[in-house]
Amino acid sequence: MGRVALVTGGTRGIGAAISTALKEAGYAVAANYAGNDEAAARFREEAGIPVYKWSVADYDACVDGISRVEADLGPVEILVNNAGITRDAMFHRMTRENWDQVISTNLSGVFNMTHPVWPGMRERKFGRVINISSINGQKGQAGQVNYSAAKAGDIGFTRALAQEGARAGITVNAICPGYIGTEMVRAIDEDVLKTRVLPQIPVGRLGEPEEIARCAVFLASDDAGFITGSTISANGGQYFS
Ligand code: NDP
C-alpha cells in the first residue's frame, strides 16, 4: 500500500476531489469531516475511502481522530488541511461568533491538525503538509474579513513551518484556489455569480475541484521535494500575487 494521506474536509467539494485523486494515485487515504453531511461521507466510504468524524476546530478531537486513523492505516505522511467554512458579513455586521468560528476552523484547525502529526514526520524524515488557503487570503475580500484573515494566516503558517521542516524532509505548501464550483461557491446567488464573479475571472468559468486536486497530488509526490514554503495560485488568472 502507498503512503498514508489524511484529508480534512475530505468528503465534499475540493476535499472530496483531493481524496479521490490521492487514492487513484496509490495513497492510502483517510477523509475527515465534521458530521454535517452524512450522505457525502457514506458516498466516500462506498468509494473505498475510510471516513472519520471530528471537528478540526477542537485540538483534543484532532489528537484522538489522528490516533484512530493511524491505528487503522499507519502513520500520517501526507496531511491535507482542506476543511474550511465561511461566515460572511460586512465588518460592521460581523459578530464575534462569525469571527471565532472561521478562525477556529480555517486557521486554528491547521495548527490543531499539523501539530500532532509533526513529531512523527520529523522522526521519519518525511512529510507533506498541504494547506488549502484561498485567493481571498492573498488579496482580501470585502464581506470576508474573518475568512481573509484566516486564509492569509494559513499562508504565513505555511512559510514559517516550511523553514522548520526543510532539514527534516518535510515540505509545507499552500494552494490558493480562486472560485471553484463547490457548494461553498454555489451558495452565492446565481445572478451575483453571473454578473459579478465570472466577469472577474479571465478564463471565464469557475474552476473544477479536480483542478485543485491535481495540484495537491503533485505537491504530495516525491517529484515535488524541492518545493516548500510555496503558494500555488489556481484561480483562472483572476489574481497574480
Ligand atoms: P465545502 O463546503 O464544499 O466542503 C467543506 C468540507 O470541510 C466538508 O467536508 C466539511 O464537512 C468539512 N468541514 C467543515 N468544517 C469542518 C470542521 N470543523 N472539521 C472538519 N471538517 C470540516 O468546501 P469547499 O470544497 O468549497 O472548500 C474546501 C476548502 O477550499 C476550504 O478550506 C475553502 O476555504 C477553500 N477554498 C474554496 C474555494 C471555493 O471556491 N470553493 C476557493 C478558495 C478556497 P461537513 O460535510 O461535515 O460539513
TrEMBL record:
It comes from the Bacteria. One of its GO terms (biological process) is monocarboxylic acid metabolic process. Residues 3-178 form the Ketoreductase domain. The keyword DNA-binding does not apply. GO terms for cellular component: cytoplasm. Belongs to the short-chain dehydrogenases/reductases (SDR) family. This is Acetoacetyl-CoA reductase.
